[in-house]
Amino acid sequence: MEQEFKYYGSISYASMDNAETPPWVIVFYEKLKVRVGIYIGSEAKIWMDRAMEGAPDLADEIREVLAQSYALIPIISPSYVKDSEGGGGRWPKNELVKFFDFIKADSYRKIYKIEKLPVEENKQPQEVRSLHGYRFYEFDEITGKVIPYEPQQLRPTKKGDFYQVLDDVAQDIANDIKKNFRPQSPQGSDTAHRLLESKGSVYLASCSEDMDNFRAMVKRELIGHGFEVLPQERFLDNSQIKANIDKSLLSVHIVSPNSKLLDASTRSVIEQQFDEAVKRATMRTKAEKFQSIVWAPDAKLSEDSDTELVEKILQRATRQNKSEFLPGSIEELKSTVLQRANEIIASKQEANDDRRSASLVFEPKADKDRLSELSRIVKIIASQKFNVVVPTLDTQEMTSKDRAQASRDFEEKSLKCDTVVVYYGAGRQAWFEQKWEEIDKRDIMRKRSTEKPIRRIIVLDEPSTPHKSLCDALYSGDNTLVIQREDDVAAKLETFL
Prior knowledge:
Elements: E1 7-12, H1 24-40, E2 46-47, H2 60-67, E3 69-76, H3 78-87, H4 91-105, E4 110-111, E5 113-115, E6 133-135, E7 137-139, E8 146-148, H5 162-180, E9 201-204, H6 212-224, E10 228-230, H7 238-246, E11 248-254, H8 264-283, E12 291-295, H9 308-320, E13 323-325, H10 330-352, E14 356-361, H11 364-367, H12 371-383, E15 386-389, H13 400-414, E16 419-424, H14 429-448, E17 455-460, H15 468-474, E18 480-484, H16 489-496
Parallel strand pairs: 1-2, 1-3, 3-4, 3-5, 5-6, 9-10, 9-11, 11-12, 12-13, 14-15, 14-16, 16-17, 17-18
Antiparallel strand pairs: 7-8
Helix pairs in contact: 1-5, 2-4, 3-4, 6-10, 7-8, 8-9
């Protein structure tokens, strides 16, 4: 991410939602800052306008805050919608529209939709309708009445409470910060950068509103175990559904047992997602092991339930023999999804054991601003059927013990690699020569054990590094390749390897 931001996020809300005792929005804001700060290990820069005096146009201060914010956190409620339609200060709508303009220019910006109270999707502001929200309420299964999640709530309900959903929001924001964010800093320091991402992605299909709380429970479990959850949008077209499913280890489909509650567009999206998952499972390779799981809550199935959609999807699953129907409780679903995801990862790892391995070596302090180029090189090497071992980058959040363990882990994995890629960017020549000597020593040990010599690849990415011809002269050999950034790296690697 090229642009730097002053704030991780700014909160957009209607003043009526903060009129309770204790004030709901202020409690949400203060607790969110604490939770995000705990997860990232530093102060969470989240902005909120406490004055909220209201005006038909955005104040200059708020406009500036939005421009400097990575994310917008709108608190959706009937009051928010009314204010957005002109019944109040009209700030919420203006904030959304302005921030959406920023998203069009910078697609990496985010909106985290907070659903304080129920609002029909077709009445929500256009900018947030397609997004999955964080629901701070549920419906009583007998009376159908709304049960709000309040900060002073003493005991959680079966499906959640204020602090549980707040923690979902905090973890998602923290994970995005660690992956994408560079805050403004007078010292120029960076927060965590990671070349390697989560354990993998799980496609947790968009579902009907009556199943949203179940979806949130599964999402919470997956994120807690290191998985990324897709999609972030609620309603997708076919190409977006396919793109997200193609990235995923498996798909999970939570289907409402009451088809009569669903409108045509929701039914269409639910069926499209399942059909695309079946196609992916049909076309999967032996190594992919992709599968889909279908679940409907048994507790909600009754004699008067309209199970037509469930039955329709189950018929397709049975006919294609590419899906698993999982009856049972939500706890059984969570356990099974984690088990299947980990099984797929294990099977992929077994397949990868037959692949060659390469370790990437670079000078972190000198090349910390070249992570995008390093990521490009990692992808190119991986495309040549290599497992790539990458060092964990030092961050402010890491303790000295963490750093020592990360260094040991990298060294242990590197010793098993038959290829070393030395990225020679802004690093000092003394550093480069030291690394080369270390590789020489490893090579001698390998030859003593009758193993093949280490293949060495030097990637030159800095005018101040030795001229390529000099590198060819000093570090030449049958097992050494010297390439420059502007070279066709993939082609040269393929020929060399």
